[in-house]
Write a structure and sequence with these properties.
By secondary structure, the chain is mainly α. The protein is 34% helix and 0% strand.
Length: 97
């Protein structure tokens, strides 16, 4: 008897649920639309880090002293470097005395 009652309830639920044949469609969703404007954009990134070479080679000076100035894009004459070093050496010695 319980099985018959269960069968009747399931049959009636199927019959009454199938009467509404209209399909409810969801309304279209609103989406944002952007206008694309072509333009040149610089592409670069800044990161913090360290760079290591494939081989770490110690660099040692062959002469004593300190680097006092760097002159880029200036061509030196043959003996100009030696004369400049001698002049600066004399200036240092004069200051010390």
């Amino acid at each position: 008897m319980k099985i018959n009652l269960l069968f009747v309830v399931l049959s009636l639920s199927l019959i009454f649920s199938c009467k509404d044949k209209s399909v409810r469609a969801f309304p279209p969703q609103k989406i944002k639309v952007y206008k694309v404007i072509p333009k040149t954009v610089p592409i670069y990134e800044e990161f913090v880090g360290q760079v290591f070479g494939e081989k770490d080679i110690p660099i040692r000076a062959r002469v004593e002293g300190f680097l006092e100035e760097i002159q880029e894009r200036k061509l030196a004459k043959k003996a100009q470097g030696k004369e400049e070093r001698e002049r600066r050496k004399q200036e240092r010695q004069n200051r010390e005395n």
